[in-house]
């Protein structure tokens, strides 16, 4: 899916915030009409009881995570997903996206993350419960849960054909994947990788975090699904490479 006008991240993404890109919706009720009207009136899904309930739940749930995967990360992913969705819809209006599923999956994408999940917790059940408790229609619960299940980088590395098939069937997955991966690279990605290293594997030291650039982060660009995501990833990946080069230059001076 190609955007009609190339987007340079430096000029476009600086303005992205959680509220900067509003997705109109047709209903403030958590019934199936919230999900199905093709051209909804301009009423914000973000005002609905379903959205507010999920938002509040995720904010509380993520409070136990370290800064690399905290609620601020979720908000950035949400903003990126909304931005990508708007750009992709403008470029390809014939492609059908279920906008509310993009928003809910972006909010929920790290609930039950295997790196942080507590003993006895089940990620799928957590997601299904919070959606059901806030009035999400049952068949859309399954869709959002499916998107969340396949967002992660590790899921795609293990089962690339399955994930690609899921993206083809549910293009919303590609948007949420791209949003999550964009937040792992660029300047913010640099900060996050060091925060995660300090919290989860301090024994690897700073060098271990730098190694992660090559092990994973610099590969992310090749796995982007949307044209908008690919454009943004190109610039952010270059920032990673620049940082790693500066690091290596300074290391040589110290040795």
TrEMBL record:
It comes from the Eukaryota. Residues 66-194 form the HD/PDEase domain. Pfam families: HD. InterPro entries: HD/PDEase_dom (IPR003607), HD_domain (IPR006674). Coiled coil: none annotated. This is HD/PDEase domain-containing protein. It comes from Friedmanniomyces endolithicus.
